[in-house]
Each structure stands twice: as C-alpha cells, then as structure tokens.
Design brief:
The complex is a heterodimer.
Chain A: H1 3-24, H2 28-53, H3 62-80, E1 84-86, E2 92-93, H4 98-120, H5 126-144, E3 155-156, H6 171-194, H7 196-206, H8 208-213, H9 218-244, E4 246-247, H10 254-267, H11 274-292, H12 296-310, H13 314-320
Antiparallel strand pairs in A: 1-2, 3-4
Helix pairs in contact in A: 1-2, 2-6, 2-9, 2-10, 2-11, 3-4, 3-9, 4-9, 6-7, 7-9, 10-11, 10-13, 11-12
Chain B: E1 2-13, E2 16-27, E3 31-35, H1 42-49, E4 54-61, E5 64-65, H2 71-77, E6 79-82, H3 94-101, H4 109-115, H5 117-121, H6 132-144, E7 150-154, H7 162-179, E8 182-186, H8 190-196, E9 199-204, E10 207-213, H9 219-226
Parallel strand pairs in B: 3-8, 3-9, 6-7, 7-8
Antiparallel strand pairs in B: 1-2, 1-4, 4-5, 9-10
Helix pairs in contact in B: 3-6
Classes of the chains: A mainly alpha, B alpha/beta.
Amino acid sequence: MTRETALNTVLMALLLGVPLWAWVSDEPFTITLATRAVIFALAAVGLNIALGLGGLVSFGHAVYFGIGGYAMGILAFHAQTYTPLMEWPLAIPGTKLMPVIWLVAMAVSGLVALAIGLLSLRTSGVYFIMITLAFGQMFYFFSISWPAYGGEDGLSIYIRNSFPGLNTLDPIQFFGICFVILCLVLWLNVRIVNAPFGLALNAARQVPQRVETVGLDPFRIRLTALVISGMICGLAGALFADLNRFVSPTMFSWQMSGELIVFIILGGLGRVFGPVAGATIFVVLEHALGGVSDYFLFFFGLLLLGVVLFARGGLYGLALGRADR
Amino acid sequence: MTLLAISDVTAHYGASQALFGVDLTVAEGEVVALMGRNGMGKSTTVRAICRMVTCSGSMTFAGRDLNGLSSHQVARLGIGLVPEGRRAFRDLTVQENLAAVARPGPWDFDKVVELFPRLRERAQQRAGSLSGGEQQMLVIGRALITNPRLLVLDEATEGLAPILRQEIWSSIGTLKRETGLSILVIDKSLKELRGICDRATILERGRSVWFGRIEDLDAETSQRYLGV
C-alpha cells in the first residue's frame, strides 16, 4: 500500500466512522455535518476532473451545483403542490423520487455543461476563467428573477425526497446514500484517471499542441471532461438541496464556485481524494471556528494562504512530500 | 502507390513567408529524406503537412485532400509525427504515454518495447525523468502506437550521444526492413541517410531544388546545397 492509498483509507474511514459514532451516541447534528462534507466533497471531486486533471480553471461550477439543486427543488415543488411540471405536449408530474431527480439533475447539468463548454473552451487562461464566471452569474441572476420558483427567496421542500427501501428522513440513512454515491464517483474518477481518456486529458493539459499531432482532439477531450464534471456537480447539487430541504440562488453564486476551487486547492490539486480532504476540513473548521469567532472566513483565509504559499500540493502534498506523485 | 504528395506548397509565419514552393512525394513502403541546411524550410514543410502552420498548395495523403483538416484529423488519417525537440508527456509514465494515444493496429505496447527494449525497463517511470535518448525512443514509440501509415521523423537524433544515435538509426532500419512502413526523415547526417533512404528531396530557401534517388546525389550537388 502506498502512502497515498493509506491516507485515502484513513480519510474515508474517518468520514464514515465519525457519523457512525454520532449515530450510536445519538448526535444527529454531527451526522448532518458529515453529510454536508460528503456532498461538498462530491461536488469538488466533480470539479477536480476538469480542474485538476484537465487544467480547466472553471470559475462557474456553481452553475451545475445550482442546476442540480433546482432540478430537485422544481420536481419536488410540483410533487408537493400536486401541480404538473408540464402539461403540453406531455403531461409530466413532479416527483419525490431521488433516483429520478438525480437523473434529471445530471442530464440537465450535462447538457448545460456541453453548451457552456462549446463556447468557453474556445478560449483559455484568464478568458476561460472569466467566461465561466460570466455563465455562473447569468444563472445566478436568472434564478433571482424567476418568481415561479421563489426568486430570491428560494424554494422550501417540506419533506425530504424518498429513496426506495430507505427512510431518508433518518440522518444516518441519508448520509449512507451520499457516502455510497461519493465512493462510486471516486471509483469512477480513479478509472477515468487511468483510462486512455484520462491520460489524454492529462497530456492535453501539459502540451496541447503535441496531443494533436498524435491524433487527439484536445477540444473534444476537454469538452467530455467538462460534461462529466458538470454532471457530478449536478448530482451533488441535488443532494445538497435535499440535505437542506431548501434551494436558493445562493447555490448559483460565484462564492460557491470559489469554494469548490478552494476545497481542491486545500486538499491537493489533481489528486483524486484531495477534494475530499479539502471539503472535510472546510466543514470541520466552519463548524469549529464558526462557534468561536464571527470571523471564521478570515482564519480560513489565513489557512488557505499558508497552504498556497508553503504547501503547493495542498494538504495531500504536505503529507506525502513532493517526490510522490 | 503514392501515399503523400505535396506540390507547390507555400507557408507563412505571420507576415514572413517560409516556404515558396515545395514539392514532395512519398510512396507506400518508401523512405524519403528531406534535406537542406538550417533554416531552409525542412521543419516548416513537416509542420505544413501536419497543419501546424498557415499554408496553401496541393497536399494529398492516401488520396485524401489535407487542406481544411486540423492537426489531429491529419494524424488520424495516418501521419505519425515525431516532432523536433523530444516532447514526451513528462508527467505521465512511459506506459501511460503510450496508452494515452494508442489506436488499433499491429503496433501495441509489446511491439514498441520490442523495438526499444530500454523502454520496457522504464515502463513505470515518468517520462520527464528519462534521459534524452530514452525520451526520443518514447516519442518514436508514441508515434508508432498510433499505427500510422507514414512516420515523420523531424531531427530524431539531434543532440544525442553517438551510441544512442546508433541505436535509433538501427531501430529505424529495423522498421524499414521488417514492417515496410513509409518514413519521411529529416536529419543532418548524410551518411546515415544514405544508408537508409530510397529517395531524397533537397530544400533551398523554402523551395525544392533537387530530388531523386539518394545514390544519385553527387558530391557537387551535396556540396552546393548541404555544404558537405
């Protein structure tokens, strides 16, 4: 077992062990915190496919997170008010079924990522960052001015959506769903990293022109990565909205996009489990420091500054040393 | 059968013109040298074929018009480029470099390491940590594993130790004898080129000025255009 594998195992064991302990000692709030960490980790793992592996600094991944949230919100809203989602040409009702909501969230996020990618991937560097940010803001302001679904106030869902065979209102069961999804996505991510597609994406990040001379189309490879990345963030968004039973334009905000990037940098850019570490530490500090000081983000900023200056590979890089990949 | 045929090709870098009319053909199974002194347009010709520079003129490969295609489309038609200056994907291992670009055909990982046994020993090592010669072998292997119909070698032995040059030339010889792969080769070593090439084209100031069988290249022509 390499040191990185060992660290991954410890991290995942903690992420699973703490809520289990909280369940036994009847502390549902801790379970909710852990669920929050797992969902943020999921979104950051999604972004990491574009950012860490593909080198695409997307400053607009909140778009997909928000789309996932609103997919859940809108479907559940129609189900709880017994109004149809659409009457013509097809009569489509809302739904409270999680698997259906997830599929819709991923499909819509994927399509939007495809459209955004087709436009934004023609640029690179600072322009790419700005254009993705602009798309993010477009969605943010659109959601604010969409009164049908709550506008600025957002949408509340009274009862958490259901999953066949499970009681999702029980915190530990909902945590279990999120944790299993995170594990599946991490497994998928490892497969992608080692597959020819992931290697090509990695190579395209290093020397874009050279991959063309060996017959790879960097545009198409990056577009695929962006779509996969967006779909994972969409799924995370749907779960996040379900955790809070609430969705609002905040999910589309640029701060959200920024936080996702921070999770990755904090944990370790380009490492599959890095974002999991980053998101977990963020949630733990948010809770621990948030109780001590109103200036939590100030201290968090100091930590981030330290990481960026002194631990370029993030906390994973710090723990494993530079030589280790 | 003619595999690659380009005629009257011109190319520009911004406002400055680099090629003024290059003609070149490579037949199936043939090894052709592209010769000329520094700055005469050899690499630019290769870049024009691979669509990496603004160019015009007639260019066909296996009956397909190359005009209007992008670099990766040209590569997919079967032109495997070994670019100047050894550009392996440094952060990937040797095996990953090959796996990232592999396309179906007779060339696979085993065949590449059979041709370059040094790469077998280094399979799990990152390309960035290889020696110059090993990186060059990897880049040739990377071009081969895309299963090209034409291999283009742009200064493949430049700046390498004599023993490594020898090794690479002998591998190219093996390629020619055993696979019948068409090869377009740019190199400064006339001796090595004479040993392996069927035909040659000489460029002078961005124009084709001589072409023929390499054994017909006489001392006067060679002195005049190549300075040797």
